[in-house]
Amino acid sequence: MSAVERYTALQLAVRLVRHGVKLSIVHSGTGVARDYLRTLHREIHGHSPRGGPLVTSVGTVIKTRPQQAQASLFAALYMKLDGHGLYQAINYTALLDAFEMYLALLPTPQAALLDINLAWATARDLRGGQADLQHCPACAVGYLVMRAGHIGSTCPLCSLYARV
Asked: Burial code of 106-123, b = ≥16 C-beta within 10 A, e = fewer?
């Protein structure tokens, strides 16, 4: 790996760690050593990284229509930024850019129902075919459908609008 490639990987690792991405994901996406990532996390956040398992399927975590609507927004942004490349591998730069746009579109950061690790799981499930974006025939908006999930495969925006 050249010096420029190491520098680029380190820059990406810093962005990912700042957003709170689990270190196992950062390591697999950048190749930066785990020990270095733990030190980096402590310097950025002031505490050791939290442990815990990765989300096995986004469908098992998303349980409400508002969560599905926000995950759909993120998925649409990610798909727009990465195009059909999302089916080959996770583009970590596109992941971060889509997540930052998703946060910018919300009224406040506290309104976010999706964290960066769930956004990563969404990107992973899109790549692996466990999730897909379908277009609603009624409102023409793309929405996230999960193969293994608690929510039906209907448009969350139409469902939420029908409640009002």
From this structure: eeeeeebebebbbbbbbb
